[in-house]
Amino acid sequence: MKAPIRVAVTGAAGQIGYALLFRIASGQLFGKDQPVILHLVEVPPVMGALDGVEMELDDCAFPTLAGVVKADSDHLEDGFADCNFVLCVGSVPRKAGMERGDLIRINGPIFTNTGKAIQAAAAKDVRIVVVGNPCNTNCLIAMANAPDIPRDRWYAMMMLDENRAVSQLAKKSGMTVADVKNMTIWGNHSATQYPDFYNATIGGKPAADVIGDESWLQDTFIETVQKRGAAVIQARGASSAASAANACIDTVKNIITPTPAGESFSAAICSDGSYGIDEGLICSFPLTSDGSNWSIKQGVKQNEWAQAKVDATVAELKEERDTVKDLLP
Ligand code: NAX
């Protein structure tokens, strides 16, 4: 067995947290030879429920779970102490009648404190994945409040969108999800995201050629992916949880595993100005990893129609950044 790593999960008693913790503790994420100490962070009124989650973790008797630390959101530095990964799931969900701008203003301050506490307490090699919405802008706020942490350590989760898109293409083409590659989501984790089917392949061929129905791709496919979260809420009466937890696992795996040659994955990271996208925005790109650092895949071409989609989602990210500029030191 290796030395344990420490993984913090905020919102640990929420529905994504509940679907996520057991998969991390069981060794599915970091491997059966990598012990993990889980740091569970919740708001004070939910600490009782968190005790119950801890009991259930105990009752699984996972050989890879080397310990559990609990902390409330008034003591974030205890929660993030020496953590190698911080998975920021906790945030206030959008309620009926709430505009996106309202949600940004409510959740923004959570992420100023999160950024400061990560900088003060986490391990030197910490990497952060923000899931709580609006995840790109929350990530931007946390990053801005932790200036000593290198900017390439910050990620916002786009993998649920990628997985949704891959699954739709596989179904439509009659192929398997394993046949679909390079299904990049560009931009914001919101209804403006651009699922880039033109550069995706199915069985090694351009997805558009395999599907053979460009108007289905431009209209039905994109809308289905963009609005999938709402469709799950409508059907299930609750927002995506198991699939979101799964996407969080996939994101961390993609970060820590060298990307197979010729492939890429989607995550929102701090733009370096590639593709003319403002430096410093937390924007989703096609990425590759060498097992520890990401690179943006270069040379991806967009036609005029697709470029307009990318421009629209980037414009939304800039608007969100303007909405929270007082939270960005
Ligand atoms: P839940 O409401 O079930 O759980 C959220 C938990 O966070 C609650 O237990 C709450 O007490 C806790 N919390 C709130 N403020 C906190 C704080 N300051 N510190 C620590 N914990 C805090 O929501 P759930 O369904 O688990 O979703 C969590 C977040 O993920 C939401 O913001 C949601 O919008 C977002 N999502 C993001 C996705 C993505 O692809 N990036 C997809 C799924 C999901 O919608």
Verbal overview:
Residues 160-326 form the Lactate/malate dehydrogenase C-terminal domain. Catalyzes the reversible oxidation of malate to oxaloacetate. One of its GO terms (molecular function) is L-malate dehydrogenase (NAD+) activity. Substrate binds at residues 94, 100, 133, 164. The active site is at residue 189. The N and C termini lie far apart (42 Å). Helix 1 (15-25) packs across helix 10 and helix 4 (100-121) runs parallel beside helix 5 (135-144). With 329 residues, the protein is an alpha/beta fold. The chain is built from eleven helices and 14 strands. The relative contact order is 0.13. The longest helix is centred in the middle third of the chain and has 22 residues, at 100-121. It has two domains: 5-157, Rossmann fold (3-Layer(aba) Sandwich); 159-325, Lactate dehydrogenase/glycoside hydrolase, family 4, C-terminal (L-2-Hydroxyisocaproate Dehydrogenase, Chain A, domain 2), CATH 3.90.110.10. A six-stranded parallel sheet has the order 3-2-1-4-5-6, sandwiched between helices. A three-stranded antiparallel sheet has the order 7-10-11. A three-stranded antiparallel sheet has the order 12-13-14. Strand 1, helix 1 (15-25) and strand 2 (36-42) form a beta-alpha-beta unit. Bound molecules: ligand NAX. Ligand NAX is lined by residues 10-11, 13-17, 41-43, 46, 73, 89-93, 110, 131-133, 135, 157, 160, 189, 229, 239-241, 244.
What descriptors fit this protein?
329 residues; three-stranded antiparallel sheet; binds ligand NAX; single chain; 2 domains; Lactate/malate_DH_N; Rossmann fold; six-stranded parallel sheet
